[in-house]
Amino acid sequence: MPVKLEMDAGLYERLCPGIRIRPLDGTRDWVRCADLQKEIWGYPDSAEVVPGSFLAITPHIGGLLLGAYAGRNRLVGFAWAVPAFHEGRRTYHSHMLGILPAFRRRNIGWALKMVQRDLALARGIHEIHWTFDPLQSGNARFNLCRLGASVRAYVRDFYGRSDSPLHSAIPTDRFIATWSLTAARVVRYRAQMLAEAPPTGRLPDRWDPVLAAESRRRADRPQRIHLGNEYLFEVPENLEMLKKENLRAARRWQTLLRLACIDFFAKGYRIDRFVEALINGKTRYYYLFRAPTGKEGKVAWLSKCKFRAEPGTS
Q1: 10-194: which CATH architecture?
Q2: Of 87, 129, 163, 210, which is most buried, counting CB atoms within 10 Å of its CB?
């Protein structure tokens, strides 16, 4: 028997007027969700699309398949999570969250994730995981600055080759996000969003002189700087534009971030903030790495390393 979802999305729907959130229900919804994947991610065929016949098992296994509907029941976005285990704990793995381009920047993704959170907590689950591209600044801002997720793991070429134009040209390296649903930061960010005062990614003032000193650099190379036991690593403002204009630079950027993350995470560092800073009239974006509590954490910093192209990156 399907597991019934008891939910009240009205609290979140008021931040995305004209949108209703409810579970996908029935063959028509599941088939539409499969078609939506092609529209959102630009898949040229069905090889990477999760078919409706597979999505149909979601309510029977305790999964969460939520849809965002506009107008007369038009599906414009969805979030799909399946039951999982992590370090012996029951969790969810949120495999997909997608919104049609015309409906983005309207808090729909946030509302879907909030309903997902409420349903998970109602089932006694306190953690959700998912993957995202470390070089996609928009996804980083959403996951870290709006939801309050954190990152402690990096996986090289997680999905292998993809036919999606959004994932092409470079390996599908991914962060694994951890969303601790009752963490103080998550609760605080939710309250700020509901108060229509979203959390900001403003970098603390103590970084200003450090960034100013590092502002002269080649535009196609990321800044890699530190202050005490905190480290910043820059990400491109627009990965797709960078790939079109300078694919070699995009591949170099990915390789340098990969090497940094492997080193940092092995030493217990984490990322829980995505920040921005205005330097010479231009906004730049960074991950903020923090050492384990009470540890200074010495890292073999990349500025001392020579760049070496890896297979598939040049």
Answers
A1: 3-Layer(aba) Sandwich (3.40)
A2: 129
